[in-house]
Amino acid sequence: MTVTDEQVRKLMKEHTKSSNIEISAMRSGMSRKTGGKYLQNGKLPSEQKVVHSWRTRKDPFSKHWVEIRQKLSDNPDLEGKALFEWFCEIYPDSYHEGQLRTFQRKVRSWRALEGPDKEVFFPQDHEPGKRLSTDFTHMNSLEITICGEQFPHMLCHSVLCYSNWEWATICHSESMLSLKQGLQRSLLRLGHIPVEHWTDHSTAATHAIGKKSHASGWRYNQKYVDLTNHYKMIPHTTNVDSPHENGDIESMNGALKRRINQNLLLRGNRDFESIEEYRLFLEMVLQKCNRPRQKRLLEELAVMRTLTVSLLPEYYEETVRVSSYSTIQVAKKCYSVPSRLIGEKVTTYRYDEHIDVSFKGEHQLTMPRLTESHKHAINYRHIIHWLLRKPGAFTNYRFREDLFPNTIFRWAYDRLCEVCSGRVADMDYLRILGRCAETMQSQVEKSLLIIRSLNLVPRFHTVIEFLPQSKTSVPQLAPLRVDLKEFDILLNGAGEEEHE
Asked: What is the domain extent for residue 350?
């Protein structure tokens, strides 16, 4: 039976009271012989452990260790798991997957004894009110949904490095607009301005000079310089491929996501009725994070400048001309607009999530802003009536794929092409789109789904048959009732006027 340190401490305490080895050992849960040994030795069991350098069992990798060590020496970045799997393929009869942990421990020991030097990190002492770091972090791993639909997004996350006070805003890309919005919301929440603002080498803040960035260097984007100059902050960036230089914000990214995940688990689900509801939830989590940091935050606020300048607009304004294709170019992306605006100059307001279009001060439409992977967005409602007049243009239309709102419409067109000539298929499909523009796309979708389930051809007249028919009802009129006394009053009044 193994004797613990606690038992030996009790043994010595009891022996001090009674000076009787047998009674002291019995009360401590050990034999008289064992108790005598520990009383004579005067040491705890943990102090008597012998550190041995020999192996307690045979090394299963000794046969090929020279070859393993050579691989590690030639490729220091090689991971233990990948190397183990490789040796299992070469020597399938010598190793099995249950030895992976043993192999990884052996590789780790080799790295510590014979491996290359590891990078050293140096802890930093931050001054109050000096440094605010901002970074983008992806949130898709948390699987947040809005009304049951996946909500892919990011957070623009800012942290005061001295107090660890933090704030974050929802965004969809690492754009300059997202950075401006995130930074301004953080400054507005603080009410104060730090001395420095740090970011990594994101395209929002910097760009490479020349084709080879390692040879030509980097430069701040002018819009980022204008932003930091407006708030009189000194811009700083980390070195290329060195996120650890901004380690405070990097570690806080992971901590914030873990905190959000824990609150989602307590909430019971990850679905929100709207983005606004999710934003309020996020702000609640951030406020809870910042509560224990108030003491150090007050130290920072005491030395920071008060925010007195106005916030910059969180959009970019641009005037563009509508082309004969009924499209405009905004930030090298193509968007369709109503054809009545062709040839006119319109003003666009490019926000982080959407674009507003106005003509002579009157708002015309709002459309989602395209992400990096999409180059054009054509709304069939803007052009469908002209396509119905010119159906031959549909076959080779440059943006034809945009005219399939979803997969059911794509199926409808492909099915029409299977059973009809090309011109008939184009015409029928364009008429279906035209009906969507005149009524509701959801109603046409339901009709197409029914047609597909019945294995029918989605001809235009068939789609019309399955559309919900509006019921017309004749209004109920009250019966006409004539009161002759009203005519007597009218005649009597006319006679009095003639008499006068």
From this structure: 316-377
